[in-house]
Write a structure and sequence with these properties.
Protein name: CHAT domain-containing protein
Shape: globular
Radius of gyration: 31 Å
Strand order of the largest sheet: 7-6-8-12-15-16
Largest sheet: 6 strands, mixed
InterPro entries: CHAT_dom (IPR024983), TPR-like_helical_dom_sf (IPR011990), TPR_rpt (IPR019734)
Mean pLDDT: 91
Number of helices: 39
């Protein structure tokens, strides 16, 4: 590049508009033996690129050369500008004192417009260091000068920085006003990198105002803009981690932070960003119940922040470190004192997170039995319940609940828990994606546990039932937000289906499919990303649980057994005959272990020749009954039984338990869900739909037989069994039977699927239905498997159907023998033809099977859900 002075000066704004182009042109300038002024600009441009996107050591080398060339050129303003850029790089490298000295020199040497730009960059460094008062003061001095000079770009940058500082201090409305003003200015520039940063900042503001879907959408948009420019996105990763944690996606936040740290290390990037990423990783690990990782990441972050003289950040890292140590089981008077000291420091810094630190100090003191010491800390933390973002208010209500428990006030505990969970309800309903709604409930797990403990201590089984229901299967209480008619989303889903089908065919041919699997994962990420952007829809339904209404519906014959887990032990709440009784059973962990043994046994019994294992599986069923029902098993009466298990026990084959083996048994995620299913009316006309997917060992033999039974049924098989056609026919049907291979995805439950002719029919597809079938039978392996997320929520095929109008489902919790399934399904439909509900028809179908291990195991593997 050999253009004149103006062209070389234009490289400085270009580095934020088109960074890679600016780098290339700056390197070209240096190859042509430029004059000192031009050499200074070129080295500064290369230094900025390396500082923000590359190796910080190279950045410092180029910026020092830029300073030297500026001195030779004899331009004080040029030297001041370079000193400001050098100061930012030194601060990012952890050399805080040197960086502030360089910035101070820049302020003193610069004049007018240039000095205002230097002040902006010093303000930026004050923000990085956590000195928010100083940052606001420097911006206050810079903005009028930049505006008067007509400097649109730097005025927009200054307003964006001021907004970001306001957000750090919790002043969301001020931040949003500054972001809006900055965005108006960016609209008339070609600064593409700054525009991407503005979108990212709007995402942060949306998050701070409580709009998680908008935050995710804006951060994704910013990432797309950065990708077009070819620039790394470390600050974006930090902000996305924060949003992901608020959405209950802590494991994903940890993975994102660790990936960014590795990438930053590989290029010798900014030490300040590494410290912030370590803090994000520590917070995510703490939320993901991984205190060892949280301790390691937070400890390193504390050391880096201390070395960088970043008091604000160091205090936040120490809070996470102390919380991780407490989560690992450590409690001492020293830990209380440390938490209190961090709380006082955060208060002095004006940090919105100070209540979290006071709550931690109070919790540790309570663990030590030092109630009097805990009270003042909890009292300060409880003040945050009155205002601020939802999660901050929940911190306050948790503190208030702990105060009430320490004072022995059951009423106070329950009131605080009720108020806190109501805040979380409001937050959850802003989320459109059922996955996010489910995962967000984790934020209320402590309040729900405190309420259940208080209800158990108060001795009333009805009260314990109400609180067990209060936070059980809440995601199913309202239909999910329908995915938008988004052309990009529909295109991604079609492409995903095609790629998944091609991958399956290639695997069956025995050939590797790495390229197809990579493309499938990419499309899964794109589909999930767009669904997470959906905002929630308000629902006017009164979802309060009424014990009297439940008992009226149960009558004198039906029993509902709700299993509540309090302090790790199963509490059996037996409902029926107008009353609720409580029995104590075994430990949840022991029941989970036994359930795993049963599942392993059923998998073996699905193959011929495993008859010898039948007594072992039946013995495991007896042990499960003792652990799960205990003395309640003797009080079940003779009528139908509805089981409402906690999420971690939904894979239990309930028909295997001796006291349930000959009974009519159904399972429901909650008593409220069972009531809704019981009161759901079948659609007019009662259309019947029979679907046969490809690749079944029996060829889906029962579908052919059922087609003869139901002469007017719609039969979809071969090419007709495509996902669009199947969804169209399922919508509003009275009865659907799907014979297809089922796949449960532990790594992505919303991509659990049924195999159709053109690829997988996934959970996201079901959520597009206007109304799911009133009754649906899934004669497929693993269709009754779920992922347990959040407080006690379930994600899977069955739970996608229940809020959409399905009142009854028959599905399978284990791999089964295809040939043994056929007679079971035919017998099941025989019962339906006689007018029986699904649970009773399934009971009779089991009884009609041959009395051998293969057929008995097949019958046990299927469960009836709901009440139809």
């Amino acid at each position: 590049m050999t253009a004149g002075s103006d062209a070389v000066q234009d490289l400085l704004p270009l580095v934020f508009a088109a960074p890679n182009e600016a780098l290339t042109k700056a390197e070209s300038v240096l190859r042509h033996r430029p004059e000192p002024l031009h050499a200074s600009v070129a080295h500064q441009v290369i230094g900025i690129w390396q500082r923000d996107f590359g190796d910080l050591r190279l950045a410092l080398r180029h910026l020092r050369r830029a300073r030297n060339w500026a001195a030779r050129a004899g331009s004080a303003d040029r030297e001041a500008d370079v000193l400001a850029t050098l100061g930012v790089a030194l601060v990012h490298s952890g050399r805080t004192r040197q960086g502030l000295d360089a910035l101070g020199q820049g302020v003193r040497r610069g004049t007018g417009h240039t000095r205002a730009r230097v002040l902006f960059r010093r303000a930026y460094c004050w923000w990085v260091l956590g000195h928010h008062k100083e940052a606001l003061e420097d911006v206050r001095r810079a903005v009028p000068v930049l505006r008067q000079a007509g400097d649109v770009i730097w005025t927009a940058r200054a307003l964006t920085l001021r907004a970001t500082v306001h957000l750090a201090l919790g002043a969301v409305e001020r931040a949003e006003a500054d972001f809006a003003s900055a965005e108006d200015l960016w609209a008339v520039t070609d600064q593409e990198h700054d525009k991407a940063d503005a979108v990212e900042s709007r995402g942060l503001a949306a998050f701070r105002s409580g709009d998680v879907p908008a935050a995710l959408r804006l951060l994704d948009e910013a990432e797309e803009r950065y990708a077009k420019l070819g620039t790394p996105t470390f600050m974006l990763s930090i902000r996305r981690c924060e949003v992901l944690m608020a959405a209950g996606l802590a494991a994903e936040a940890l993975a994102e932070a660790d990936t960014a740290i590795a990438e930053l290390d590989s290029i010798g990037g900014q030490s300040t960003r590494k410290a912030e990423l370590l803090l994000a990783a520590a917070r995510a690990a703490r939320q993901a119940d991984d205190p060892a990782t949280a301790t390691a990441r937070a400890g390193l972050a504390v050391r880096l922040f201390a070395g960088q003289r970043r008091t604000w950040w160091e205090a936040h890292a120490r809070l996470v470190l102390l919380g991780a140590r407490h989560a690992a089981g450590k409690a001492s008077r020293r830990l209380v004192a440390d938490a209190a000291a961090v709380a006082e420091r955060l208060t002095g810094l004006g940090a919105p997170t100070a209540p979290e630190a006071y709550l931690l100090a109070g919790r540790i003191a309570l663990d030590l039995g030092r109630t009097a010491d805990a009270e003042p800390y909890l009292a300060v933390a409880a003040r945050s319940r009155r205002g601020g973002p939802p999660l901050a208010r929940m911190t306050g209500w948790a503190a208030q609940a702990l105060r009430a428990r320490a004072a022995g006030s059951t009423r106070g505990v329950l009131e605080a828990c009720r108020r806190g969970l109501a805040v979380l309800d409001d937050h959850r309903m802003t989320l459109g994606a059922s996955e996010l709604r489910a995962r967000a409930t984790a934020q209320g797990a402590e309040l729900a546990a405190l309420a259940q403990q208080a209800a158990l201590r108060s001795g009333g089984p009805r009260r314990l039932l109400v609180w067990s229901e209060r936070w059980r299967a809440t995601v199913l209480s309202a239909p999910p937000t329908r995915p938008p008619a988004d052309p990009a989303l529909l295109s991604h889903m079609t492409a995903y289906r095609e790629i998944a089908a091609r991958a399956e065919e290639t695997r069956m041919e025995g050939r590797p499919v790495p390229a197809l699997e990579r493309e499938q994962r990419r499309l899964e990420r794109a589909i999930r990303s767009r669904t997470l952007h959906m905002r929630g829809e308000a629902h006017d339904d009164d979802t309060r649980f009424d014990v009297g209404r439940l008992l009226d519906q149960l009558g004198d014959v039906v029993r509902l057994v709700e299993l509540a887990v309090v302090d790790g032990r199963v509490q059996v709440l037996l409902c029926g005959q107008g009353r609720v009784r409580r029995f104590e059973a075994g430990r949840l962990t022991a029941a989970e272990t036994e359930a795993d043994h049963v599942q392993a046994g059923l998998r073996r019994l699905a193959h011929p020749g495993a008859q010898a294992r039948l007594p072992l599986v039946e013995a495991a069923g007896r042990r499960l009954e003792e652990l799960l029902l205990g003395p309640a098993a003797a009080h079940l009466g003779d009528g139908p039984v509805v089981i409402v298990p906690p999420g971690r026990l939904h894979r239990v084959p309930w028909a295997l338990l001796p006291s349930l083996r000959e009974r009519v048994v159904s399972v429901s995620p909650s008593a409220s869900s069972w009531l809704r299913a019981r009161e759901t009316r079948p659609p007019w006309g009662g259309r019947k739909v029979l679907v046969r997917g490809p690749g079944l060992a029996t060829g889906g033999a029962e579908v052919t037989r059922l087609a003869a039974r139901y002469s007017g049924a719609t039969v979809l098989e071969h090419r007709d069994a495509s996902v669009p056609r199947v969804l169209a026919e399922l919508d509003g049907a009275g009865l659907a039977h799907i014979a297809a291979h089922g796949t449960f995805r532990t790594d992505g439950p919303m991509f659990s699927s049924l195999r159709m002719a053109d690829g997988p029919l996934i959970v996201h597809d079901f959520e597009r239905l206007g109304r799911s079938p009133y009754r649906i039978i899934l004669s497929c392996c693993d269709t009754a498997r779920f992922a347990t997320v959040g407080a006690d929520e379930l994600l899977g095929l069955v739970t996608a159907l229940l809020p959409l109008g399905t009142a009854g489902v028959v599905a399978c919790s284990a791999p089964v023998n295809d040939e043994a399934v056929v007679p079971l399904m035919l017998a099941l439909h025989e019962g339906l033809a006689q007018g029986l509900p699904l649970p009773e028809a399934l009971r009779d179908a089991r009884a009609a099977m041959p009395d051998d291990a293969l057929h008995r195991a097949t019958g046990w593997a299927f469960t009836a859900f709901g009440a139809a």
